[in-house]
Design brief:
mainly alpha, elongated
Length: 183
C-alpha cells in the first residue's frame, strides 16, 4: 500500500505541474496520464476517476497556495485591510502564485458553466481563501471582518481577471486605486 501511495503522490505532482502549465484545456484521462508519465489504467488504479484526479490535484495546489500565503503572513498576525490587500496582491500577481491564480480563475469559469468537479473545487478554494483572509484581518467585529474578507477576495480575484483579460498595467492601476481608496 505504501508503494501505491508513493506512486500516486509522484503522479499527482506531475499532474499539478501539467495543470499549472496548460490550465484546464488538457484534462482528459489520457492527457492526465501522459502528464503523469503513466498509462490510463495506472492513473485509474491510483485515482477513482478523472474527477478524483482533478480534485486531488487542485486541492493540493490550493494547499500549497495557503502555505505560500502563510509564509508571507504568519498565522497569528493580524493586519489592516490595506496592508493585507498590498501583500496578497503582490503575492498573487507575482512568480509565487501567478500560475495558480490563472488556474483558479479558469476553475471558477468552469464552475460557472456547471462543470463537474469544478463547482465544488471552486467553492472549496474560495472558502479557504476567505477563511485565511478573515483570520488575518485586524478588525474586531466578526461581521465587519467577514465583509472585509469578501471585499478583499473580490479585489484580488478581480485584479487577476483584469490581468488575464487585459494587461498588467490595468492590474497595477487597480492596486493603486484600491490603496488610495482605503487610506
Amino acid at each position: 500500500m505504501a508503494k501505491k501511495t508513493a506512486q500516486r503522490a509522484k503522479a499527482l505532482e506531475k499532474i499539478e505541474t501539467h495543470l499549472l502549465t496548460t490550465g484546464l484545456a488538457e484534462t482528459g484521462v489520457r492527457q492526465l496520464a501522459a502528464a503523469a508519465g503513466i498509462s490510463d489504467r495506472m492513473l485509474l488504479y491510483y485515482f477513482e476517476d478523472k474527477t478524483d484526479v482533478l480534485t486531488a490535484a487542485l486541492s493540493s495546489i490550493s494547499a500549497k497556495v495557503v502555505m505560500t500565503l502563510s509564509a508571507a503572513i504568519p498565522p497569528d498576525m493580524k493586519i489592516s485591510p490595506p496592508e493585507l490587500i498590498t501583500i496578497t496582491t503582490e503575492l498573487t500577481r507575482g512568480e509565487a502564485m501567478g500560475a495558480e491564480m490563472r488556474l483558479f480563475v479558469e476553475c471558477v469559469a468552469a464552475a460557472a458553466r456547471g462543470e463537474v468537479p469544478y463547482e465544488s473545487i471552486a467553492k472549496q478554494i474560495m472558502e479557504g481563501f476567505l477563511i485565511w483572509v478573515d483570520a488575518h484581518l485586524d478588525i474586531e467585529s466578526a461581521d465587519e471582518r467577514k465583509a472585509a474578507a469578501a471585499m478583499i477576495l473580490a479585489l484580488v480575484d478581480g485584479i487577476a481577471l483584469l490581468e488575464i483579460c487585459t494587461d498588467e498595467l490595468r492590474g497595477d492601476m487597480a492596486v493603486k486605486a484600491a490603496a488610495q481608496m482605503l487610506e
